[in-house]
């Protein structure tokens, strides 16, 4: 995986012009005329039907038609004038009769006919049917009578509470996680905790799984990665779950009969550790209680050589209150290369989602780097990366925040004109209320209609390494949103607004760089406090020093 950190290219605002020029030249039936009013857009002397495709077949009773036309002239459908945006973009929600439906569009003596075929819905008895008439076989749960266990083979496996639905509140399982398999339901195995995991993500063994024992436990700070690391030595890479409640972090290990406790002294984050035993269900649950002033902003679990590494991400440390020096930010421009994402009113003849996403991302990067942040891009050009590649990169980089930038759309059966505007998606609102901070900041900055953030099971937000959100800038399926988004000036404004939201979030949760004082012979806590102009009480509390009369030579004291 390549991590791109080059400077923003000067061609950002030119990219739409170039793309349109190439596309129009490759389509001889289109004639384009440049518009002085909107740089980067060329007015087609034709009617473009972006969606659906001609001879589209459906069982639905209604469908949205999306397209563009010569904006100097009115547009008619079956003889009736229909509304267009200022630059000729349009959508119309039409009713369909069973059979062949023809829609004739006319614009400046150009005619384009769209045919949509509506089929009858199949009503075959004895089967569960989809709207298209395809049958869905009934699947039932089969409990195993013999001992079986499995090992997670994917980097990130997403458990489900039920086969039929994805529970967004369940945390992912990492590579190597090992669990008893209780049974199966279709293409899913049921694990020891009652959740289901896809068979494609687990290797099955028809053997008895031995009980897990945690024989050694340690806790240490990884300063370079800004995290607290808890290492548990165990004979089985135990199935686990992680949950949070106030200042408590719970790590539950399944089929575990012994659990050593780590020493907490001197870490400054975890005040105490307790282990709760559930003999009936054969679980051991670690409860890590943080100091009142401590907080974490992500976690990850890895297994290697018989050790579970439980990493707790600490608050970003910034150089000062005004800059973002010290922050690492990952930006993910959705789609790329052959994956266009959604298309707008111009279809493939104009900017598509992947282009808009990238331009906004580059403007965001430019804003953040000016504040001193380290910005890592999943892609900086028209390159495709799979969802698993993107998640892998985020887990490797361990950024202070991950933001995915996308454009929204509706399916054909929906009324495109009814959906517009900005949306924030998240999976877990565990770390600093990121979804609301981002949502409120961006909608306020751009004076957009405010909607509550939406919880959803998305690959780029169902990771726990760091706080993460996915932003849907606007609906490309809405002609007016599309017209707004393809303009370079608006892309820049959106990029800056996203940058400001990230800035506000990170500065809100950040710790400033503390000065470190190394205790010398003859020092007392009182003399150190006096030298730095703070109280003894403040210095003691900040460093978790219980006895103010006891410090040792070489001890490092943080000066807040």
TrEMBL record:
PROSITE patterns per UniProt: LYSM
SMART domains with a match to the protein in the record: Ami_3, LysM
GO BP terms, alphabetized: peptidoglycan catabolic process
UniProt keywords, alphabetically: Hydrolase
Keyword flag Hydrolase: yes
Gene3D superfamilies xrefs: LysM domain, Zn-dependent exopeptidases
Claim: Lipid biosynthesis is one of the keywords in the record: no
InterPro entries the record matches: LysM, LysM_dom_sf, MurNAc-LAA_cat, N-acetylmuramoyl_amidase_3
A UniProt-annotated Pfam family: LysM
GO cellular component terms, A-Z: outer membrane-bounded periplasmic space
Source taxon at top rank: Bacteria
SUPFAM superfamilies in alphabetical order: LysM domain, Zn-dependent exopeptidases
GO MF term list: N-acetylmuramoyl-L-alanine amidase activity
Domain called LysM: residue spans: 515-559
Xref: PANTHER family: N-ACETYLMURAMOYL-L-ALANINE AMIDASE, N-ACETYLMURAMOYL-L-ALANINE AMIDASE AMIC
Protein's recorded name: LysM domain-containing protein
